[in-house]
Amino acid sequence: MGITLEVPKTVQWSGKEVPVYSMQTVDFSRLLSQEPDEIEKLVKCCQTEGFFYIDLQGIDGRRFLADQQETLKLMNKFFDSPLEVKNEFGLVAPHLGYEPVGSRTGVLENTKDGYEMVKVSRDEIQSESPHIPRNIKNTGDMKVLENAIAGSNIITKAILSGLSTGMGLTGKDRYENSHRNHRASSSTLAMMHYIPSDPVTDKNIGHQKHTDISSLTLLFSEQWGLQIRPPGAKEFGFVAPKVGTAIVNVGDSLRFASGHTMQSCIHRVVPLNPTEHRYSIAYFLRAENETQFTDSSGRSVTAGQWHDEKFYTFTAPPEIQAAAPSYLLLGGMEEEADLSKAQLAEKETLAETYR
Question: What pTM was estimated for this model as a whole?
Answer without folding.
Answer: 0.92
